[in-house]
Design a protein that fits this description.
Elements: H1 3-15, H2 20-39, H3 46-54
Helix pairs in contact: 1-2, 1-3, 2-3
Length: 66
């Protein structure tokens, strides 16, 4: 996992923001995958990967929490 591949996922979420349920599910999956990769040492630059993943918070769509 690289910052570039994470950015591609962020761009995908941005493209699907008109479907907030799908965007939110994908956002959650991305954050989980990034945390997992960081926890198990599968990234070279953990801080940059986390920073890129967290930019999904700047994408405007409704998020539901139960």
């Amino acid at each position: 996992m690289t910052p570039e591949t994470i950015q591609q996922a962020v761009d995908y979420i941005r493209a699907m923001q008109r479907d907030p349920e799908a965007a939110h599910l994908y956002e959650n999956a991305l954050h989980q995958a990034v945390l997992d990769a960081i926890a198990f040492g599968r990234v070279d630059d953990p801080a940059e990967c986390a920073r890129v993943a967290l930019t999904t918070a700047d994408i405007k769509f409704t998020r539901w929490h139960a």
